[in-house]
């Protein structure tokens, strides 16, 4: 608006200028708010949830399924920060994280943390409220070590239920939606993952994600999967005898029988 201020008396000019400057200030304020909102909207944040293992148990499937959730942002790859790169700064670790909005949970995975005990206190020092997820499968085929030997190192620092959750890797293959619902509950996320966004691919014989635009995305199971060794039945029987009491102990600790017989 063009205003010839000379034609107005002093009070009116002051009031017009005053109004304009209030409007300008309001515009500046809303511009600043928009900029701030933009900054808050997309930042790299340290993870609030870390998948610690176990390798070959389905950690890739878990994190890719969780990536479907609008309130989750997942880090690509495995940073190995708390074991191999702990001499680097926390800012380096943050730079490995995805951009996320303030209402999203950032998830990261390094599938070989479980047996690296030095990692436990380091994660705790980063954030004592972080949530930890362990994926397990029958140790005879996949793990070659006993979960019972390691789990208590973690539960002493990250109590089960509140801070540590165990995912059944076999169920993640056969019935992922039920396992993912438990993960959603553990992370305090609204229920989102369902048959609408996870479907069974009959050709590949594996569950796959369905993107929001309707594209089916399958993990390359053949490339990812471990070549299961053919175990001599006598050796397998020996292994089962060895693992039996350790598995029972693990079931007791985590309060769930995984049915490895
Ligand atoms: N939905 C889906 N798609 C593809 N693969 C799936 C899926 N769910 C679980 N799995 C099983 O994950 C097993 C590989 O485990 P990881 O991803 O943890 O392996 S790795 O440590 O990251 O290399 C691998 O196990 P095996 O098939 O027994 O080899 C996969 O079958």
TrEMBL record:
Residues 47-147 form the Sulfotransferase domain. Disulfide bonds join 208-218. The active site is at residue 56. InterPro entries: NST/OST, P-loop_NTPase, Sulfotransferase_dom. Coiled coil: none annotated. The keyword DNA damage does not apply. Keywords: Disulfide bond, Glycoprotein, Transferase. This is Sulfotransferase domain-containing protein.
